Amino acid sequence: TQSTWGLYVMSKYLEMDVNFLKRILGEPWRLSTSQTPHGSTPGIGDPSRFPGFVCAGGGFGPVADDGYGVAYIFAGESHIFLHVSCKCSCPKTDGDKFADQITQALHDIKELHEES
């Protein structure tokens, strides 16, 4: 999302008409992700060293009515915080189920890493 935004801003600055950006920006954004800052105090972001300063941060809502917003934070070497959001009014989305699927995928990746 941020890279696409950067390309869009540059195309406007350079007054370029870019078909790729027209197409991609016209698509529904069903999955919006971004890393959110862990904290504003340098050096305190590692929960193994400063367990009293761990903050799960915040999240944001989905861009599309039938989409998800996923904010994530890597805190130190052993913690990942996820904020998964969706609109309860949409019968196609289920934030709890999606978060469970992400968690399972991360556990699967960990198992693959530990096997090698």
Task: Describe what you observe in this structure.
This protein is an alpha+beta fold. The protein contains three helices and three strands; from the N terminus they run ααβββα. Strands 1-2-3 form a three-stranded mixed sheet. Strand 2 and strand 3 (79-86) form a beta hairpin. The model has no long low-confidence stretch (mean pLDDT 85).
Poorly predicted runs of 5 or more residues: none
How many H/I helical runs? 3
Largest sheet: 3 strands, mixed
Approximate helicity band: 25-40%
Could you tell me how far the N terminus lies from the C terminus, measured between alpha carbons in angstroms? 33 Å
Number of strands: 3
SSE pattern: HHEEEH
Structural class: alpha+beta
**C-alpha geometry:** extended
Global Rg? 18 Å
Arrangement of strands in the largest sheet: 1-2-3
Mean pLDDT: 85
Content of β-strand: 15-25%
Brief synopsis:
With 116 residues, the protein is of the alpha+beta class.
Keywords:
single chain; three-stranded mixed beta sheet; alpha+beta
Per-chain topology:
Elements: H1 2-13, H2 19-26, E1 31-35, E2 68-75, E3 79-86, H3 95-115
Parallel strand pairs: 1-2
Antiparallel strand pairs: 2-3
